[in-house]
Request: fold
Amino acid sequence: MTRVLIVEDDPTTSAMLVGLVRKQQWECDASDTLEAAWRHLRTRPFDILLLDLNLPDGEGTDLLQKVRRCVTGELPDPKTPVLVISARSQLRSRLTALDLGADGYVIKPVHLEEVAAVMRALLRRRTTLSAGQITWRNLVMDPNSRLVQRSGASVELTEQEFAVLLALLEDRPRPLSRGDIQARTGNRVGDGGAVEVHVHHLRRKLGEDVIQTVRGVGYRVPPD
Reply:
């Protein structure tokens, strides 16, 4: 059973998120302070953490950094996916959270469908990381080492290009819209126009055959 920890001090938002998690038939705990959240994290493992930034006893990024500094094999797991949900819409706030180890960032007021899509993407990403390398024809991608090879030659990708390619490979051959790609990358790759640019760069670096355009839908990696 998937377990989710919600760290949110606004009762309305917390209730909405609890309802969303239960609708997915997942288990959840909710905390309204960093101290209470840390007790939960030290007591049991969680598959994903939903984290507000502005909390009564400090900054959510303090908890984020504390989790990332933990020792593998102990609680909390330093690799626990963290989705920040915050009213701070400034680019600097988003980039700071991502640089400190957040896996995604959703701006309040939340759209529950978006939150659910990003959560599913982050959980799927964790499964992919555990599984190891992804291969497609003569393309090899390692989500852990961030290694990408085509026909045995290493290919350098930016963080955003890597995230877009990983999303498309994970869902192949199903096409993804620009919005789908944003959600599956935890909103790390920019808006729809930015996704288009990343796809253009990926085609230039990896070849035109890797990513197909599906008219009226978006993009896909074709069958193996």
In short: The mean pLDDT is 93. Helices lie at 11-23, 34-43, 60-68, 91-99, 112-131, 159-170, 178-184, 192-206. The first strand starts at residue 3 and ends at 7.
